Amino acid sequence: MSSALRRLQLISHKFNTRAFHIHHCSSMSFKLPSGASIPIPGFGTGTKWYKPGDPSIDRKVVDAVVSALKVGYRHVDGAEIYGTEGEIGVALKESGVPREEVFVTGKIFPHIKDPRKALENTLKLMQLDYLDLYLIHAPFVTQEKNGISLEKAWSTLEELKKEGKVKDIGVSNFAIKDIEKLKTTATEKIAVNQIEFNPYLQNQTPGIVDYCLKEGIILEAYTPLVSLSPSAKGGPVDPVVDQLAKKYSVESSQIILKWVLQKGIIPITTSAKPERQKSNLDLESFELSADEIAAIDEAGSKKHHRAYWTDEYN
């Protein structure tokens, strides 16, 4: 038995763990510079549905997003590189949910050379007049390689924000040095940094989580449930999460999403199954104690698993 699991069992006997926690989700605020708040959790449209360069509409993606909106998700996360912006547009129309009730994120990377034109294309595909959040998808942008500097790309996003075409702007997959580089010329706050984050990758890059929390940059986590995937299943986190799921009578995915949220990070997750969508949306019915969170931290630190940007960061 792992030390994390033994520790968790001792804690469970000794304390009423509902009384000990890092954050109460009901009081947690993820407010953006615009004054808007980000709905929790986000529903992602990448990963298994990734189809860059394919303009056809995948009904499976449309149906999944429509289902997510109908069960209560109000935050849809997209990106031009996913190839699913058209599906988001169709789903938003078919869902019947008013536009002002849905928080929509877009990300730019393949067409970073011309952010204004890239946004116009994204808005056209999504059938929208504006985005709630627009992110630079990765920091690997140079004048030599992309025909634009990272600083110039960001200044264009600032212009788009001033014009009302996007409400807030941010980044994704940025390390501390990348954010510091932008801050030297930025006139608008970097509102969000969306990073790969899960029990087996608790810092996508050194110190990034504590840095963003300290700087007031909202963190979003993609692939938060990777420890449950076939590529990582069977690791040291499993017995800890399984015991907590049994204790709180919830799914293992809910335990991990709650762990992410109580660490002050917004989870972005996805599923085509309505029942899983519903359970992953229910993160208010239980609280993890600080010791339970620490047990997941400890177990996760014993294994490393990075799914994306492996060449750049490993």
Categorize the overall geometry.
globular
Determine the number of helices (DSSP H or I, runs of at least 4 residues). Answer: 13
Distance between the termini: 30 Å
Q: Could you describe the largest sheet, including whether it forms a barrel?
A: 8 strands, parallel, barrel
Task: State the low-pLDDT regions, or none.
Answer: 1-27
Integer average pLDDT: 90
- Rounded to an integer in angstroms, the radius of gyration calculated over CA atoms is 19 Å
Helical content stands at 40-55%
Strand order of the largest sheet: 1-2-3-4-5-6-7-8
Structural class designation: alpha/beta
**Which band does the percent of strand residues land in?**
5-15%
How many DSSP E strands? 8
SSE sequence, one letter per element: HEHEHEHEHHEHEHEHHEHHH
Q: Would you mind describing this structure in some detail?
A:
With 314 residues, the chain is an alpha/beta fold. Helices cover 40% and strands 13% of the residues. The chain contains 13 helices and eight strands. The protein has an eight-stranded parallel β-barrel, surrounded by five helices. Helix 2 (59-71) packs across helix 3 and helix 3 (85-95) packs parallel to helix 4. The longest helix is centred in the N-terminal third of the chain and has 13 residues, at 59-71. It is globular, with a radius of gyration of 19 Å. The chain starts with a helix and ends with a helix. Residues 1-27 have low confidence and may be disordered.
